[in-house]
């Protein structure tokens, strides 16, 4: 009787032993940030910042909305593919348990920024401080699964992506004329302020064990359909918002260089911890010459309403393009899956004009010994 009582426990242990190596085949991947990288956390929150209804996800295999602000895959999904891994689950997903924890987790939440008052119009979003708290919580859960020493190795050998900053301009400083922040700070001083706050966030992520951290800059926020609808009669990008990203991105790169000097080399002592991703340059390529990349439009969103399809959110009542591959923008703010694929290619193999000081394929080669 006593020996048979142990049988379910033994079977469970054997199943876990089989499941864990399968999930461990690729390095863990962690994602922090806003709607550009959220893959469904906001589905589990009472908030207006959601992408959980059709036609979001129209080009997924089952044509259903996943919580991604895209017609299909977003950049984290495509990075997971380059790692040879399945997409990481949203941290709030009830499916994230057991061996799935070894794949990593996505903590991102649409609407957030570097600052806590960014996106205050969206209730119940996961501020970056809360995302970091969840990362700590995740590590405790992982340690219960595989032990604290192995959990620390998984995190140290992982890849991390963080995408923040755009909302601090679009949904804060420039949200309304004479916003609170624009009255408090001139643009140069505001940029210095948010970067000083961001520096603390990035230090915290490193302090929690991450050793390869991809940090994206701010894209061409003056060129998104939402801003064109508000500010442009001829399709030209809004110069003030463009000025903001032009001023911000070089200072972000300088800050990452300071952090790398501060913390030394990354995983295995090979190369930098912080890698800067020039998403502005990646998007500018499409916007400057969309036809060269096979796009018919870099100004009109595929899904939306009003000028440039840039008013409001994408819904069942929106105007919807027939061929998503012809458009740079899916909705008022976010790229199509095809644009995301071209962006992700630059992550993987781009020159230092796009990702610096090294691209993802170089990182994977350098860190291969950590996972052999």
TrEMBL record:
Keywords recorded for this protein, A-Z: Hydrolase, Lipid degradation, Lipid metabolism, Signal
Signal peptide location: 1-25
Record-linked SUPFAM superfamilies: SGNH hydrolase (SSF52266)
GO BP terms in the entry: lipid catabolic process
Hydrolase in keyword set: yes
A Pfam family matched in the record: Lipase_GDSL
MF terms (GO), sorted A to Z: hydrolase activity, acting on ester bonds
InterPro entries with a match to the protein in the record: GDSL, GDSL_Est/Lipase, SGNH_hydro_sf, SGNH_plant_lipase-like
PANTHER family: GDSL LIPASE/ACYLHYDROLASE FAMILY PROTEIN (AFU_ORTHOLOGUE AFUA_4G14700) (PTHR45648), OS02G0816200 PROTEIN (PTHR45648:SF2)
Similarity field: Belongs to the 'GDSL' lipolytic enzyme family.
Entry protein name: GDSL esterase/lipase
Organism: Lolium multiflorum
């Amino acid at each position: 009787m006593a020996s048979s009582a142990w049988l379910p426990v033994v079977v469970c242990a054997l199943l876990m032993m089989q499941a864990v190596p399968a999930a461990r085949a690729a390095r863990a991947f962690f994602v922090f940030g806003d709607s550009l990288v959220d893959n469904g956390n906001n589905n589990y929150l009472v908030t207006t910042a959601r992408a959980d209804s059709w036609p979001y996800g129209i080009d997924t295999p089952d044509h259903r909305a996943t919580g991604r602000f895209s017609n299909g895959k977003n950049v984290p999904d495509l990075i997971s593919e380059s790692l040879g891994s399945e997409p990481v689950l949203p941290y709030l997903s009830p499916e994230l348990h057991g061996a799935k924890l070894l794949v990593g987790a996505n903590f991102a939440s649409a609407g957030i920024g570097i600052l806590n008052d960014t996106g205050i119009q969206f209730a119940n979003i996961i501020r970056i401080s809360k995302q970091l708290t969840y990362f700590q919580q995740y590590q405790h859960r992982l340690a219960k699964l595989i032990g604290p020493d192995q959990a620390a190795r998984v995190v140290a050998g992982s890849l991390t992506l963080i995408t923040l900053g755009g909302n601090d301009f679009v949904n804060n400083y420039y949200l309304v004329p004479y916003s609170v922040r624009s009255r408090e700070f001139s643009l140069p001083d505001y940029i210095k302020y948010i970067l000083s706050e961001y520096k603390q966030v990035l230090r915290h992520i490193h302090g929690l064990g991450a050793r390869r951290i991809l940090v994206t800059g701010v894209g061409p926020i003056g060129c998104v359909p939402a801003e064109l609808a508000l500010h442009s009669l001829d399709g030209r990008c809004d110069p003030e918002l463009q000025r903001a990203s032009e001023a911000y991105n070089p200072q972000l790169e300088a800050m990452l260089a300071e952090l790398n000097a501060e913390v030394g080399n990354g995983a295995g002592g090979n190369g930098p911890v912080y890698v800067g991703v020039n998403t502005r340059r990646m998007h500018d390529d499409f916007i400057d010459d969309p036809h060269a990349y096979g796009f018919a439009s870099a100004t009109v969103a595929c899904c939306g309403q009003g000028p440039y399809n840039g008013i409001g959110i994408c819904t069942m009542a929106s105007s919807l393009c027939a061929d998503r591959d012809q458009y740079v923008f899916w909705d008022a703010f976010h790229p199509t899956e095809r644009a995301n694929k071209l962006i992700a290619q630059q992550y993987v193999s781009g020159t230092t004009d796009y990702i610096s000081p090294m691209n993802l394929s170089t990182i994977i080669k350098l860190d291969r010994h950590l996972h052999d």
